[in-house]
């Protein structure tokens, strides 16, 4: 075997083991290499292509002007839709007195990039969640191990509050990553009453520390909806958490569910700071926060309400807000009632 044939055989072997489609034409414009990936892309076996002039190969005729441009300009990169109806990024490399090589790679769509980024964020945030939860647990063990001085107890409580905020931010980032990935909902029959009661139980300690009481107003016979219970719990929890944060000491957070005209509405009302009408049109935007002297002390990422709206829209529902400065706010959402009601 000559050195030249060995090099060609090696090149063919390598090209047949890569995922990119490779088409090589010699200086006479005859196809000299057509790898396995190219066979799949052009729906044509190599033995029907090799040795033939490019313009005599029906499946490759669309490439003729692209190769001609490469010879004229000395090689270039472009995007082209091939017979598979998939957009490819095509790179043409000219070898003087030898021919031209074309390499076709599937072009990544913005959606693909977005999904990959969302998955990467989710992986990173998952890695953050464990140490935050562990640290929070260790602080709780310190408090349970014996009495602390007033100063030590204050520091421990501050650390707990900071870790709770970090954990809530982790959950919000996980929700955003899930939404960006375009993942589907896990739909089942859900009793909205049960979700509201569960949320009240979850936030009972936090409400007590903030000096806030819950008032539940629920339909006596339950309220069935078609929903992803985990995501809906996150929505209600987000609204309840905000209501507690913005409530005065001794305030009441009213959690209610009502049914009208085949629709169910869940609303969370507080007696807190309220929101100016100027801010309301932007309240569900990502990273938007109301900046007033009264809200500076309240931590938040500006993601929570954007997540609420996105999740409810994914369920085919709608969100709403009504607020009066100095009197409080009502946030909520509406969904279609399940046919089983």
Q: What is the succession of H and E elements?
A: HEEHHEEEHHEHHEEHEEHEE
Looking at CATH, the homologous superfamily of the largest domain is: Histidine kinase-like ATPase, C-terminal domain
Name the strands of the widest sheet in spatial order: 2-1-5-4-3
What is the 3D form?
elongated
* Count of the domains: 3
Largest sheet: 5 strands, antiparallel
CATH class of the largest domain: Alpha Beta
- Give the oligomeric state: single chain
CATH architecture of the largest domain: 2-Layer Sandwich
Binned, the helix content reads 40-55%
Q: Decide which structural class fits the backbone.
A: alpha+beta
If you compute it from the alpha carbons, what radius of gyration comes out, rounded to the nearest whole angstrom? 31 Å
In terms of DSSP E residues, the strand content is 15-25%
The number of helical elements comes to 9
